[in-house]
Amino acid sequence: MHKTAIAIHGGAGTITQANLSPEQDKAYRAALKKAVEAGHQVLERGGSALDAVELAVVHLEDSPLFNAGRGSVFTKEGKHEMDASIMCGKTLEAGALAGVRSIKNPVKLARAIMEHSDHVMLSGYGAEEFALSYGLEFAPEAYFFDRYRYEQWSEVRDSDIFMLDHTAQRDEKFGTVGAVAVDQEGNVASATSTGGMTNKRYNRIGDTPIIGSGTYANNHTCAISCTGHGEFFIRAVVAYDVSCLMEYKGYTLQKACEEVVLKKLVKFGGEGGLIAVTPSAEVALVFNSEGMYRASKSAGEETLVAIYKE
């Protein structure tokens, strides 16, 4: 029986103690702890890594604190467009969706696409139609309304400015949630979900639903979930690049993550981070920004919850 481990993130960016009140700090930590421990309980009961990452991400999607699911930001039109993906390291099967508007838990739709369709990625109305056919839960616009998110959007909705998440500096705020895990069978999995950018236009899609950029899982190497400025993560093919460094160059997980996040991304201005786990339960939480909402738990060890640079 393999050692189990799970890690989650809730976004990265210019996150410092000066930016969060004590009450906000406490709320974020509690939400992260609840999500990671829920996922780890699945693993300890003998459940699959896929089930664990899906449940952990559902917890994060259900919280208005994070830019995914219920907490998704507003688009230029005052709507919500969500992206998500999930991948199985054992089979390399994956499911992804982009630009859906009414799905309560996009990660559940990603799982359904992976398991019940012949496709990897669906978008917009087609993805929503697929969700209806499999009985996935929809939610009204009021469910996604959050006063703080609305005020964020109100500041820029009459301009061409778009906003990322998690910072006082409006152009460096990366809101995404994700989870990676390894189960008792030694199988890894990853899942990622996001509401994208505040005031985004033209049905913009970031790295979250793109397999190999924002999400990747392979039992031969690792499982990865990314958070950051999606355009840079797409161009750098971040998640797959970490796996390639391990598979073809023999890098350790930590070294591969640092090579991509702290060197390759930084060279051309990419900011953000990632979480990763190997089949042997090695965990990495690497970011080049001021902070990253993150948590991890391995079998027999205490839960780690952190926000700022240590």
TrEMBL record:
<keyword id="KW-0378">Hydrolase</keyword>
<dbReference type="InterPro" id="IPR000246">
    <property type="entry name" value="Peptidase_T2"/>
</dbReference>
<keyword id="KW-0645">Protease</keyword>
<feature type="active site" description="Nucleophile">
    <location>
        <position position="176"/>
    </location>
</feature>
<dbReference type="InterPro" id="IPR029055">
    <property type="entry name" value="Ntn_hydrolases_N"/>
</dbReference>
<protein>
    <recommendedName>
        <fullName>Isoaspartyl peptidase</fullName>
    </recommendedName>
</protein>
<dbReference type="GO" id="GO:0008233">
    <property type="term" value="F:peptidase activity"/>
</dbReference>
<dbReference type="GO" id="GO:0006508">
    <property type="term" value="P:proteolysis"/>
</dbReference>
<feature type="binding site">
    <location>
        <begin position="204"/>
        <end position="207"/>
    </location>
    <ligand>
        <name>substrate</name>
    </ligand>
</feature>
<dbReference type="Pfam" id="PF01112">
    <property type="entry name" value="Asparaginase_2"/>
</dbReference>
<keyword id="KW-0068">Autocatalytic cleavage</keyword>
<dbReference type="GO" id="GO:0016811">
    <property type="term" value="F:hydrolase activity, acting on carbon-nitrogen (but not peptide) bonds, in linear amides"/>
</dbReference>
<feature type="site" description="Cleavage; by autolysis">
    <location>
        <begin position="175"/>
        <end position="176"/>
    </location>
</feature>
<feature type="binding site">
    <location>
        <begin position="227"/>
        <end position="230"/>
    </location>
    <ligand>
        <name>substrate</name>
    </ligand>
</feature>
